[in-house]
Amino acid sequence: MSNNQTNKIEFKIVTPEKVLYQDLVDGVTLPGIDGQITILPNHIPLISAIKPGEVLVKKAGKEELFSVTKGVVEIDGKTITFLTDAAERAEQIDEKRAEEARKKAEAIMAEAHHGEEGYVDAVAQMERALSRVKIARKRRHGGGSPTISQ
User: Fold this and answer.
1) 35 vs 91, which has greater pLDDT?
2) Separation between Cα atoms, residue 1 and residue 3, nearest integer Å
């Protein structure tokens, strides 16, 4: 393995339908339950729950954003495997549709009572919609995303 590849880590985003992303990257930042998790090459082994939000992938000085739902990440030091219900690249997000989904979830939350099944589902929909709107706006306005230092 060349020295250039030793400073990389393989990253995969896997949904039930397909492997959405797979490449050697410089680093990845994921929305962990207790805050952001940044993973660089040779990271210690870890398995962690991931909440809906933004995944930032850094490769060759460039950043790519993904909107993701909840999932689980497994890190073995050489590979990061993120299993999630759904994910999409920032450029695939339709900001208008994401904003409509946010409003719909907000209306459901207003009508349902805390603890009801519909309310819990609406909260999850709201988290995903807010993440998608935020990422679409970042992409449209050209940045504002955190960086991964090496």
Assistant:
1) 35
2) 7
